[in-house]
Amino acid sequence: MAPAAIGRPGYHPAALLKIYLYGYLKRIPSSRRLERETQRTWS
């Protein structure tokens, strides 16, 4: 099935892997905390 033409585009898998590994190494258990941390760190 093709992605819909509306909505936000998906994230590149390499970017998601980097964020996941960053959270693992910094011991951030929650996806919400990981979101806040990445916005603070990489913005």
Protein architecture, described:
This protein has a domain at about 15-40. It is built from two helices and no strands. The protein has helices at about 15-25, 30-40. The radius of gyration is 13 Å and the shape is elongated. The mean pLDDT is about 85. InterPro entries: Transposase_InsH_N.
Number of helices: 2
Which regions are unreliable across 5 or more consecutive residues at pLDDT < 50?
none
**Cα-atom Rg, whole angstroms?**
13 Å
Q: What share of the residues lie within helices?
A: 55-70%
Query: Major sheet: size, sense and barrel closure?
Result: none
Shape: elongated
Strand proportion = under 5%
Helix and strand content put the structural class at mainly alpha
Distance between the termini: 34 Å
Keywords:
Transposase_InsH_N, single chain, 0% strand, Transposase, 43 residues, mainly alpha
Write the layout of secondary structure elements.
Elements: H1 13-25, H2 31-42
